[in-house]
Every structure is written in structure tokens, then in C-alpha cells.
Amino acid sequence: MDMIANWLGNTPDFAVPFALAALGLILTERAGVLSLGAEGLMLVGALAGIGAQLAYGTPGISLFLAMVAAAVVSLLFALMVLVLRINQVIAGLALVFFCQGLTGLLGTLLDWTNKPVKGLGAVELWPLSELPLLGKVFVQNPLVFMTPLIVLAVVAFLTRSTTGLRMRAVGENPQAADAAGISVMGYRLAAILAGSALIGLAGGYISVLSTKLWIADMTGGRGWIAVALVIFARWSPWKALAGALLFGCIEALIPQLAAAGVRLPQYFVLMTPYAVTLAVMIWVASGKQVSGNQPGALGIPFIREERR
Question: Which pTM value belongs to this model?
Fold first, then answer.
């Protein structure tokens, strides 16, 4: 029972980076920009967050700077896909490789590797924290409890606000949006910046609040899983949150099994999250509804001169 309680209590901590990264990808892709650079932007956010935490010691500032750093780096991606009109798949992959090399180099040069930080203490939601078996779920750092509120805010923005509806129009039919006087390039740039900031927050969460230190490539492929999670959720923020909890359960179970003395091959453990990702992708594809909620102009560059 203790193992189950610890497993359930650790699940939200593992799920939050998936949820925030997927949410950032949904924001970007709702504007019609295919973003595969989540892994690299998460690394940028993780490095910036740990650097700010070592300098200032304030998690709030560190997470904010993680968001800013990822947004600034995403300007390179915006330049490639909006101005130079480079294939968005290639641009996303190039961004990942660039960020992996950049963060590894800076982390070594600045001597930030393996330096622990204080992080942020847990907040207890009483009386829910006294529940048997589920009590530990309600003892988490504040960002865990804020994540559903962030999802709610994004949903309200996309479905209730004029700006959000215009951004979705840009992702569905940029030619019609341009004819209606909406700045397609402006909305796509804003979506890239906002989405990248959320992805950077996911990376900052890992380094500042979860592991509380920096090591090279510490995101461990979570950005790629977030890309698959968006397809699994069919670009729905609430479904992405549910999917994040699923992957969080899987990741949280692995250390609990090890602590319980269950011996598993190392490489089997390492491949488990990716094997589940493949299984989920196959299941979604078998339903023949993969593109049911996909933005109509996703991945297609907008060239105003070619508008008809």
C-alpha cells in the first residue's frame, strides 16, 4: 500500500512537464506551425532555469527566465519557418540539435553541471492530503496545482477570446484569415513565442523543481513524447492533460518498482516510455481519426502573394 501511495503521489510531478510541453505545442500548432523542437526548447528552459536559480535562488524568477530564454531561442525557429519558409519538419529538427549542443556547451563552460539547488517546498491541500492512499497526491509544489489552471486558461483563450479564435482561423485557413484583415504572420509569431515559453516552463520545472540540478540532455526525450502526446490528444488541451497523467504514471512507476526490489533490465526500463508512446500512436492511428481535429493548414507555409 505504501508503494501505491508513493506511486500515485509522485505521478503529478512526472506528469507536469509533459502537460506543459504539450500545451505549448498545441498553442503553436493551432496557428498552423508544426513544431518539433520541444526537446530542444525544454533543454534551453532547464538550463536557463538552473542558471537563474543558482544566481538568484528564487524559483519564481528562475521559471520566468526559463520561459523567456525558450521564447528568445524560438525566434530562430520563427525566422526559419516564417521568413525563410524552410520546411517546418527540418527546421524543428535543426532547432533540437542546435539547442542540445548549445545547452551542453554552456552548461559545461559555466560550470552549472551537477550543482544542486534548493527548489520549492511542497504545498499541502488539507483536508484532501489526509485521504488514505491518495493523500500524497495533494502534497505537491505549487506549479503542480497551477497546471490545470494553466490548461483552463489556454482552453478559454482558444475558445472564448477573439484573439484565440483569430489564431485558430490562421491555423485553419490562413488565406481566408488574411482576406479578413488578420495578420497571419503576426499571429503565427505570437503563437510560436507563447508556445515556446510554455515549453521552456516545462524544462525549467524539470531542473528547478523536480531534479533540482542540471545535467546535459536531462529532458531525456520528454519533448519527443510531448509531440506524440499532442497527436494522441488530437490538439485538445484537456486530453493532453489526461495523456500527461498517463505518461506520468508510467514514469513514476519505474523507480517505485526498483525501490520495491523488482529487478528489471536497464535498457528495458529506459525504453518503456517510448514503447508506450509507440503503442499509443498505433492505437490512435488504428482509429482512423488522427486528423479529426488537426488544424487545416498545419505545416503549410503562408505566402501572401499566392493567396487566391
Answer: 0.93
